[in-house]
Specification:
The protein is mainly alpha-helical. Helices cover 60% and strands 0% of the residues.
């Protein structure tokens, strides 16, 4: 398994190559995604940017569906589906405070 820094570097390289393969400049991507050119540059360089920025750029590059599928549940059987549905509907229990409020 790769280290987190290696994964970030790989994703940033792929993102840059995808942009270039679509013959888009950083300014094009920035304008279409509603972010600054420096933010696109930071993303491609692996500098700290938010997940929302990554999602916006991925969508501009036509790769939003792959990103959306990132944490899809692994369902191989009906039992897996039922287990997933049951766990997905669990509610967090609110605890009462110990000081009587």
């Amino acid at each position: 398994m790769k280290k987190p820094d290696e994964v970030v570097k790989l994703l940033c390289e792929r993102l840059r190559k995808e942009r270039l393969s679509q013959q888009m400049t950083q300014a094009d991507v920035a304008a279409r995604s509603g972010i600054g050119v420096n933010t696109v540059s930071n993303l491609e360089s692996g500098r700290n940017v938010g997940v929302g920025t990554l999602v916006r750029v991925a969508m501009v590059l036509g790769r939003g569906s792959e990103l959306a599928a990132l944490f899809m549940p692994k369902i191989d059987s009906l039992d897996d589906l039922l287990r997933y549905e049951k766990n997905a509907t669990r509610q967090r229990i609110k605890r009462s405070s110990s000081d009587g409020e």
